[in-house]
Amino acid sequence: MDFRYLGNSGLKVSEISYGNWLTHGSQVENEQAKACVKAALEAGITTFDTADVYANTAAETVLGEALEGQRRESLEILTKVYWPTGPGGPNDVGLSRKHIHESINGSLKRLKTDYVDVYQAHRFDTETPLEETMEAFADVVRQGKALYIGTSEWTADQLREGHRLARELRVPLVSNQPQYNMLWRVIEAEVVPASEELGIGQVVFSPIAQGVLTGKYKPGQQPPEGSRATDAKGGADMISRWLKDDVLERVQELQPIADEAGLSLSQLAIAWVLQNRNVSSAIIGASRPEQVTENVKAAGVKLEDALLKRIDESLGNAIETDPAKTAQNAPQTRPGS
């Protein structure tokens, strides 16, 4: 495993991290989930990402149990706050001082740890003053419950304003967690340049486009039984935008490129996001341990410029680059409000 600094901080993270969105406490039985975490640890992954909203807090509980007994100092644990949790009451959502403080306490209890390495704003809260949010995050850091703070899917302007307040409060805002993959490149035009300017690193999710870039979804065919596209608990909704024949046909054109590089399609996709120097870590998920073992082989892979150009040519107009999509895909009001 190779390691990278998280933004301009002194914290190193494994360049491939393990996340349990849509799996632990939901799609995958607990024992299988723990086996996936064990495989991640054996592969050299030290960075684990979760969120309180995943499976309505159950994912944090499973991860906490799976990591129990590991040397805490050898791990980097990231979690997030924003989306509704619990019974979904009026204050069970957002980035208010109340919700942030109650959420970090719940997350620490479920994760069986005294602190998280990075506490992330899971989205931007349009209904709470940013000053209130950042002051609450600063309190969490000063109380020793988090070492660093981060964001997820914030726009360039939101990152700049959040970073300005973090500097005034003297707390380290060091990361952003966006979706990023060969097909979804909307952060490249604005978010990445702003992050490089501010010293913020990307911890990216969906590097294989929720399985589409593995090539297992074939144009004109039904999704494989048991795949995320057939999961009624949420996976099918999340992946549906990629399941168009024109996109799937272009993905199939990547197979000879992967073969030439000596990689599987999933390894090629993960290696691709790691070519971006602003990416500190790529999050992989898994429903089986062998998926972890395969995907970590993308660590340390260098893709030549000519190969990257062929990827672009193969995917063509299936690539989304519009920077406005970051804001468009974010909630304009708090969920449930």
From TrEMBL:
Residues 326-337 have a biased composition (Polar residues). Pfam families: Aldo_ket_red. Residues 315-337 are annotated as: Disordered. Keywords: NADP, Oxidoreductase. Residues 15-314 form the NADP-dependent oxidoreductase domain. PANTHER family: HYPERKINETIC, ISOFORM M. This is Aldo/keto reductase family protein. It comes from Kribbella lupini.
